[in-house]
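Continuing the series of single-chain predictions for the mutant panel. This is the parent chain; the variants come on the following pages.
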Amino acid sequence: QVQVVESGGGLVQAGGSLRLSCAASGIHFRIDAVTWGRQAPGEQRDMIASINSRGTTNYADSVKGRFTISRDNVRNTVYLQMNSLKPEDTAIYYCRVEGTDQRTRYEYWGQGTQVTVSS
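Parent structure:
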């Protein structure tokens, strides 16, 4: 059974930092990409950072230069280092794992972790 678990959220003051973790277990397919998304109350879920199997990263303009996505292949864990946090970064942060096994495509989301940035 595939599980995706986010952790590392919390309450931080503006200008502070947090590191989120996304741990995947039960993976039975090739992971093609891991993406972090976030959703604020009343808003749609936005994708903010991704890393693919080659290590190529992409960032939304809103977090570029402040957030860094990285991975530990041994631990099957992807991290999101968030620096210079702003109140507008407050949201539930979700991790999505995408992959393929022959002709079948898989996509799994975690339950999310709350990040609150106070001004």
